[in-house]
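Cross-posting from the modeling subforum.

Setting up a comparison between two proteins and wanted a second pair of eyes on the formatting. Protein 1 (sequence, then structure tokens):
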Amino acid sequence: MAAHSVTFEMPQSLIDLYRTGGNDLPVHNGNGRWVLPLPATYVIGRDGRIAFVHIEADYRERAEPTDVLMQLERLEADLTR
């Protein structure tokens, strides 16, 4: 995840909140860091070309399923040409 920049370095305010809840994220992650993954959706063609990317820091904001399906349909159409 870190190699693709899809992680979120937690600010001190969130670290404090997690600590009060007994969550030791650095131990859980096994890397000593207060880092969470970002929600990400990729559509990648068989040729390795990235056809669609959606990355959003707000975990409540996800890719629209219709947008993802449209990209998949485009890739399928490209294969049949």
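Protein 2 (same layout):
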Amino acid sequence: MNDTKQGRGRLQFLLIAAIFLGPLLIAAWMYFSNAGLAPEGRTNHGALLEPITRLTEVLPDSALHSQTDGRWVLLYENAGVCDEDCRFSLYTLRQSRRMLGREMDRLARVFLHGDIPPDKVWLADEHAGLVTMQDGALAELLKSKRPVDLEAGGYYLVDPLGNLVMYFPPGIDPADMVEDIDHLLELSRIG
């Protein structure tokens, strides 16, 4: 009688173990086999800028720090005259911020221009709230941090702590840029 109780106890233990370990083993098999059921990796549309550069340390006197109020910054840099490409980039900057919806107040737009200031009347009419500034040292730093394999004239994303985070190439679809920014805002507890 003792042997039948032990046999029954072992059987119950094996059934309980199968109930708990079975789904885990099936999931591991599905993940590691070539069944095509493995989760897809996340890809960014912009380029992560590594190593991280803290602008507040590298350029402590930059006006950027005082004009963004601890928000995320989407920055466009154009050293020349603001021609049609520049105007379209500023339009993309504005629309990208609007596409963030209720999160748009967490993002400041900055236009870093060169020696020729932009048309202030046009900016006031078309781009209210856009921070415009001239900072040669910041412009040079941004150019040095842009990935060499990506075209110049894109957008830089700076976090509220002053870290240069991402670069988006000039021809990017604004929806793709917003997807990356929205993902970062969702994960961020700052700004």
